[in-house]
Design goal:
This protein is mainly α and about 260 residues long. Helix content is about 80%, strand content about 0%.
Length: about 260
Amino acid sequence: MSALAVQVGSLGGRAVLRTLRQPAMIVPSLVFPLFLLAVNSAGLHAATDIPGFPTDSYLTFVLAVPFIQGALFATMNSGQALAEDIENGFFNRLSLTPMRGSSLIAGQLGGLVVIGLVQATVYLAVGLLAGAHFEAGAAGVPVLFLLSIMISIGFGGIGMWMAIRTGSGEAVQGMFPLLFVFLFFSSISLPRNLISEDWFRTVATINPVSYLIEGIRSVFVYGWDGEALALAFGIAIALIAGSITVASLALRQRMVRT
């Protein structure tokens, strides 16, 4: 166990340092979601006049979105970094050492957790400074951070699977727009019960990303919504289990080929 901890710590620290040394990997994941937050909160404020809208602050309503967008950026960053390791031969050198495959995955995800904490802190701080409400109070902050990190790990696992499966940074980047489609076909802009188009409401209801957004949104808008949080945590756990499983299987196959 001590050897495993050393391996995970070393690879996790490397993942964090490599990200911090490349501002182009972390700055867009902070700036781009905040830019969209500013545009959407200003341009769609009139939506709060719709009867049944859950809050009078559209900023509060849409503040959940940067947390999901940040997790999607985490998918690209973690996947692209791992793909680069495969392309430049670092992965091949690691395969000649006693390193365990679980250490590689855990270390990569450990670095992702650190970046996820930075993202969540920035998004929450900027949102509150801009005047958003946080109905859950101080007790809701750990819940928000935990859910945000779990979502980042789940999406990060998808990025790792894509990187291991293809060994190509370009392939990981190509997956990014596809994941954004899931974001925009969700309850990102309106509550599902206020979406007038039947087909769009149906798609948003089927889309699991809607429930991740609504779980984060609940601590801002409602305080404590047990159903929304349970669904969000349940989907996040399923996403983590599924993505880590397929990433582990892909890693086993690649190490055999190597």
